[in-house]
Write a structure and sequence with these properties.
It is a single chain. The protein contains ten helices and seven strands. The protein is of the alpha/beta class. The protein has a seven-stranded mixed β-sheet, with helices on both faces. The protein has helices at 16-29, 47-57, 72-82, 102-110, 128-145, 161-164, 177-183, 209-227, 231-262, 274-301, and strands at 3-9, 34-40, 61-65, 87-90, 116-120, 157-160, 189-193. Strand 1 (3-9), helix 1 (16-29) and strand 2 form a beta-alpha-beta unit.
Length: 317
């Protein structure tokens, strides 16, 4: 099969028939064999009923329904597991992503040999606050990851099948799939300017909390990609540094007291100095950070994923 199209759905009953017909027209004209996988993320409207009807009418339509709303990352992870196409494309179900982009995305994966092609909604029809915060997040993500994309959170993306089978999308990490893919060893990441359309039906499902979650997720993915396999490198280094700073401060206070005693002068009590308590606190924090790294290494040692390495090629194996 040429193509799998994974579409998360949450209360988008009005747009599903139109989206399905549009995708079908584009793929048939491009002579692509394809499957359309809808993941109903616990919709409370009639989205699942419509998906069920479409699957009866159209043999290429498949559907999965969660018992409750788990979020877009869970829907994508499940869709990736089910996808069997050579190329996997994700898009939103609200008709803001244009299926007309599909043939060129497929070409870039096949002919230009990109691992991922991410859409860039250069001209957006989103509220002002959403555009501003997205611009901030994208700049921060570019700086922290080294991946030169303008729009990390664009729902319209294309992947080699190997990529989606090699990464785990969890929590709210769907915003940073290119970073997860890069960590898994897929470095050829491209970008394409795509059409962004104004919402035709319903209202957006994202609230103000998405901005806070997006920032926290960026910190999380940054930590995981750098220190997920070796937490001692971070916590052990910070803990050792803080312990040494506290030890030097305590050593200075002790040395000063010995100097007073050696010169037969009245030595002030070490505990009278606020630096004693600061030094003690810094040493305790340093010890706790070191132990945190040590515990992280023990957890990694017992993880079933500790020796899960991605193999690109084999010869005579």
């Amino acid at each position: 099969m040429d193509l799998s199209i994974v579409v998360p759905v949450y209360n988008e009953e009005e747009s599903l028939p139109e989206l399905t017909a549009w995708i079908e027209k584009v793929c048939i004209n491009a002579r692509l064999s394809f499957e359309l996988i809808f993941i109903d993320d616990g919709s409370s409207d009639s989205s699942w009923k419509i998906i069920s009807g479409l699957s009866i009418e159209k043999s290429f339509v498949k559907g999965l329904r969660f018992r409750r709303n788990y979020g877009k990352a869970a829907a994508l992870h499940t869709g990736f597991h089910e996808a069997s196409g050579e190329v996997v494309i994700t898009m939103d179900s609200d008709l803001q992503d244009s299926p007309d982009e599909i043939p060129e995305l497929v070409r870039m994966i096949r002919e230009d040999d990109f691992d991922i092609v991410s859409g860039w909604k250069k001209k957006r029809y989103d509220p002002f606050i959403k555009r501003v915060t997205s611009r901030f997040y994208n700049r921060t993500a570019r700086w922290s990851s080294g991946i030169k994309l303008h729009d990390f959170n664009c729902g319209l993306k294309a992947y080699k099948n190997e990529v989606v089978k090699s990464i785990e999308v969890f929590g709210e990490m769907h915003r940073y799939i290119p970073m997860l893919a890069k960590e898994a060893g897929f470095h050829k990441i491209g970008e394409k300017i795509v059409e962004h359309r104004a919402r035709k039906y319903g209202v957006t499902k994202y609230g103000i909390d998405r901005f806070i979650k997006g920032y926290l997720d960026l910190l999380t993915i940054g930590f995981i990609t750098r220190f997920g396999k070796s937490p001692m490198h971070l916590f052990g280094s910070l803990g050792t540094l803080m312990f040494l700073i506290g030890f030097i401060m305590a050593g200075f206070l002790g040395g000063r007291k010995l100097w007073y005693v050696y010169n037969n002068q009245r030595a002030p009590l070490v505990t009278e100095s606020p630096f004693f308590y600061i030094a003690l606190t810094v040493m305790i924090i340093g010890t706790l950070l070191f132990l945190t790294g040590f515990l992280g290494e023990l957890i990694n040692r017992n993880s079933s994923e500790r020796n899960n390495y991605l193999i690109k090629d084999k010869i005579n194996i």
